[in-house]
Amino acid sequence: MKHSFTRQQKLLEADEFSSVFILRKLIRSEYINIYYKKNELGYSRLGLIVSKKIHKRAVRRNYMKRLLREYFRQHQLGTIGFDIVIKVVKYYNSEQYQAMVGELDNLTRRVLKYYNKDNPIATVDLENAK
Fold it and tell me: pLDDT tens per residue, the chain (130 residues)?
């Protein structure tokens, strides 16, 4: 089954990012911070922040964003109704990729735990999502 990552699944405007930051739901880890809030759209939207402080080269920043988008796409977090902003706080490359994915899995479970408090029927199986 092919999963896609469409334009409607992206946070694009400053107001969309701001609405997530205002709610202040935050989960931290070594490589990334995840800000999130529920939305009423029936699908999730993803916003990514990788500043020049993380790495000065755009190609490296784009690589990190590409990996995060691919994780979001493969795990189909787009079906649970969240606005998610992922802010990279530490540079990672292909050697640290597995550690970063482990962090993403852990953080995603925590977000889903928050979601499942109000909606116990909805689940996402992270192990079998690929």
Answer: 456 677 778 888 888 888 888 877 888 888 888 888 888 887 788 899 999 998 999 999 999 888 888 888 887 665 677 888 889 988 888 888 888 888 888 888 887 777 666 554 444 444 444 4
Q: Where are the domains of the chain?
A: 7-118
Give the CATH class of 7-118: alpha beta
- pTM for the model stands at 0.79
Q: Write the burial class of residue 20 (CB in 10 Å: 0-12 exposed, 13-18 middle, 19+ buried).
A: buried
> Contact 115/37 with Cβ under 8 angstroms?
no
3-class SS shares of the chain: helix, strand, coil, % to 5: 40, 20, 40
Q: How many CA atoms lie within 13 A of 98 on its CB side?
A: 1
Would you put residue 76 in left (φ > 0), alpha (ψ -120 to 50) or beta? left
Structure tokens, 90: 């530490």
